Amino acid sequence: MRLNPLLPLLSLLTLTAASPQTTTITLRIAPSHALLPNPNALAPATHATLSSLHKAKSAPLTVANTFVFGNVSAGSYLVDVHCATHAFAPLRIDVVPSEIEADGRLRVQAWETYRGNDWDNKGEAVPVGEAGLEVRVVGGKGYFMERSKFSVLSILKNPMILLGLVSMGIFLGMPYLVDNMDPEMKAEWEERQKTNPMNSIMGATTGGSGVGNFDVAGFLAGSSKKDEAGSGSGSGSGSGAVASSGKGESRKKR
Amino acid sequence: MLPPQLSTLFLLALPSAVRAVFQDEVGHIDYHYELLGLPQRETTFFHRPRRDDKASLLYTLSDVGVLGAVNPSNGAIMWRQKLNGSTTNCGGFTRAGEDESWIASALGQSVHAWDAVTGRNKFWMDFAGEVKDLEIMELTESERKDLLALSDEDGTTVLRRLNGNDGSVVWEFREATKDIPLQASTNVGKVFVISLHGTAAAYNLKVSVLDTLTGKRLDELVIGTKGEVHSADDVMFVGANSASPIVAWTDDTRQKLRVNVLGTKSRQEFSLPTGTVSVEIHAPHLVQSDPHFLVHSRTATGNRADVYHVDPKTNTITKAYDLPLLSGPGAFSTTSNGANVYFTRITDDEIILLSSESHGVLSRWPLNTGSSPASAVHGVSEVVKKTGADTSYAVRTAAVTNTDDWVLVRNGAIAWARPEGMTGAVAATFAEIPESEDLVKSLEQEAHSNPLEAYIHRVNRHLNDLQYLPAYLNSIPSRLMSSVLGTEVSSKTGKLTRDGFGFHKLVILATRRGMLYGLDAGNSGKVLWGRRTVNLPQGSNWNVTGIQVHESTGQVTVLGSNGDYAVVKPDTGNVVDVAAPGPGRVTESTALVDTESGQRLISFGPDGEIGELPSNWTPKQTVVVRGSGEELKGVVFTANGTTSRGSTSWTFSLPQDQRVVSIATRPSHDPIASIGRVLGDRTVKYKYLNPNIIVVVAADDNASAFTAYLLDTVSGQVLSASKYEGVDTGKPIECAVAENWFVCTFFGQYTLRDNLAQSLKGYQVAISDLYESDEANDRGPLGDSDQYSSLDPIDTPTGVALPSVVTQTYILNTPLSALQVTQTRQGITSRHVLAYLPESHGIASIPRMFLEPRRPVGRDPTPAEMEEGLMRYHPNIEIDPKSIITHERDVIGVEKIITSPTIVESTSLVFAYGIDVFGTRVAPSFLFDILGKGFNKVTLVGTVVAITGGVLVLRPMVRKKQINALWTAPM
């Protein structure tokens, strides 16, 4: 107990005596950041490195979320924080050889640095305070790729499918609409259809012939002409499936 | 220059082409052994990290320099820290203060204090000399507990007392006497520094007694040893921190044990049993424990123990009791609970708990080691005394076995076992699962008989095979189900069989401790067998110089450096042939060469000297060996009768000041799918594809530079040399070669040659492409000729056909090491560069496409270049997390990565070893030839079923409608 007041002084003395040309650099992770709300959850393997030509130092993450480098000699260092879960911005730290701070240590300056750019292209200066200088979180690291999941909704969201569904709806719903029309209106509408130049291209009328008359369900069910001819069911059959010239003709057959 | 924000955006856009790991593939395609290394006797202990919590953790500093905490109930790693940059070979110290929430460790020059629960650092200090001992001062003048660090600073013994809260130095004791510091020790009132004093022939023990408060010397005692102590290793034990610390040593013949209680001048002698080979002393480390100690003496066949008590008042030592001689080496561990001291004796078939007070056995449990017999080498124990109606004890012991496993035995039953022996791996190779021997035999028989007999034999064999048909048919439904549901098909018979994709291979791993392991790469890296193949003398490492799988027999040959070798079967580990290390021949290196009798591993002595080889071992290639000093030699072998001799064909001497740091050769399996690269304008740049190239990286420490020489191994011709200046030669420089390109990685700090105003600093990777000519559609001086010889330079004014080299350098965000290139069966799949990230503890798989040297610099790529897939050059490559094949796993200490092709072209097997063991498979150009897990078979089958169902339902409806339509009267 008697010794306690002496201790800090003693330690300071030994430090300065043993290492006249060095300093201590403390890096600090912000206690709370939007990208890293709880730095206490960082893995213990997180560490920071100081590197320069023929110099390398590594410091583990401390309980107080700092990295402490002792006995750093003068030079210009690249600082990287290596963490499994988060990425940190690299820093440039200069330990100025000629300038000595009040506590007998060398002066430290820090800037953000940009990899792949000129080393002297310094970014914003990072303030070096009592509690060290702060390292900036850039973001979390995502190691995994999302697997595209099979989902009916995602298929339905596809515009091509949507287009198809709408046109199918019109295609199937039109005959009912036409059936429900007034006879007069229907006649009028059919008249208009005949004069429509599109019809010549489409080659189809309300009842549907040609392409429009193609019976998808029937085809899937296997009721092709050949099939039915073989089974001999009904005369003049298959008109639904194979008729190519329109309703009128099939009516004549009967 | 791009603004920084923009460059980050650009980089984020790059990785879309990277093949990342899917979350559901974790543990399915990859496996990882999170290891610590083999725990050392003095640095392993149970400790309660929280004062008011009963639960304790198991801490160890292993022989590879990893400090870690293990949950004793399930053997899971709580945290671990690699204390040194490189893998160490034993040594180091760990201590924990009683009831403290931190533990301290020392390795090399640093002292660390760690939070015992989280593994976070509390403080760390680097000192000038190597730390020789670390102790905890349990009792100080203040509340906290302090550290004592003893270090040897070039002949000066330095003892520092470090503040346990922040690591600051409280006091320092220096003594420049050229003594060898041994250990620091403390009892309640004093600090002792024990060092060896005198000359190497006859050391005496010097004990300096220091004041705990100031570190001032109070007294100095010299204890004569009568020339029995020759080195620090001869002093067996220096009791630390107990109420009466002791120092003990034996005479040369191990007949007498001499013990001194620290602080006194006298020494006492005790006789050891006859035939004692080694002696260990076990004593409690707590001040409040009874000062009792146990002497464990091993003879050639058995072991016994004697327990001694120290009287703290009179400093006299008396023998309390002895334990009987039992066969086997045996192991003891000490546990102290308050004042009580327990000794746990671990024999091959029993665990016996004893009190230090008397010889009565407190409890004993039969030891059930299961199928694999193993005996404990050393261990630590935790004893729980259950007081109640009848006092009972529970003991859990973590023991290191002679098969390099770390097992926890709870009351005689094995709770868990960790294969810590797989750390310190020095060599590994992939091996095919051997085909059934019977089949091989019958096929051979068929080949050697006349066609009719062979046909009858074959038909008979097939008829015989019919007996397996019902079993096969039986297995179809379950295989179908597992295939649809995506579950693993487990082989019921437990037999190793190859699979259709070639993923099912074995990995043979050799460790420096003389163990060989067989891992099943197709079955989550399961350890199939572990076998101690060579018995090494104490303290030496198995220096494996070569490992080879024999093509036809499937056997694995492992060559050591002292004429030792082992031939094992890869599936069972059964030793076919083995030779112990001998003093005679020294093997420096080995080379795998093609000979008349297939591939052979031939070994070279120092300076690349090779003796005579049998003529059918004559290598067909020129063999490149390291000569004396910094030179390489090309050796050509010529058969002469029954033997063949090598003669030096060329010598490549490095300039003065340069030393070889790395040599890379093309992988033995490096098929070329295309001899040229089709450019955007449909012209072709032809690759320089020389099978005989190596890259030699030579560093010049004084000039801070390295030169990468590309050599032709047939002629020794330097094909290209590129010098990189401003390179830190102290940091690793590595390179890898494949196809027509090579990569080198290094730390560089230099001013740009084309812009002297700019300088760079950081880890970099340089890639060089080799082409036949600078021009497209030009095959260079060789033209289309079918043959060429490196030794007969063609008739051109330029002489030798030199490749056209295109080089580009990229700056990286992290250093790389253990470079390797993926291998696939045909080489059609694009290649990835695999590299271990020593700082991020992962393995990155970097597409060659990113490291393309032809990326346009300073301009956007033209449409033709874009068609080629070239992106604009940006000096920075950020290793994208998605390209890390180890994803979230923390893989430490990888020394080497090996790759192997599979039957399917898309996939390459990867295996990394060093400290941790990691394996996976990578598909650099995506899985284009097999259905991955992402292919949803359930959906496919479901869709087919749904459509079938729909058709079946609709069919009668449609038919009915059609008939109705036909029968309705026309309107």
UniProtKB/TrEMBL annotation, chain A:
Pfam families: EMC7_beta-sandw (PF09430). Residues 1-18 form the signal peptide. Residues 38-163 form the ER membrane protein complex subunit 7 beta-sandwich domain. It is a single-pass membrane protein. Coiled coil: none annotated. InterPro entries: Beta_sandwich_EMC7, EMC7. Residues 224-254 are annotated as: Disordered. It comes from Lasiosphaeris hirsuta. GO terms for cellular component: EMC complex. The chain crosses the membrane at residues 160-178. This is ER membrane protein complex subunit 7 beta-sandwich domain-containing protein. It is found in: Membrane. Keywords: Membrane, Signal, Transmembrane, Transmembrane helix.
From TrEMBL, chain B:
Keywords: Endoplasmic reticulum, Glycoprotein, Membrane, Signal, Transmembrane, Transmembrane helix. Its main location: endoplasmic reticulum. Residues 1-20 form the signal peptide. It comes from the Eukaryota. Residues 20-420 form the EMC1 first beta-propeller domain. The chain crosses the membrane at residues 934-954. GO terms for biological process: protein folding in endoplasmic reticulum. GO terms for cellular component: EMC complex. Residues 738-967 form the ER membrane protein complex subunit 1 C-terminal domain. InterPro entries: Beta-prop_EMC1_1st, EMC1, EMC1_C, Quinoprotein_ADH-like_sf. It is a single-pass type I membrane protein. It is found in: Endoplasmic reticulum membrane. Belongs to the EMC1 family. Component of the ER membrane protein complex (EMC). This is ER membrane protein complex subunit 1.
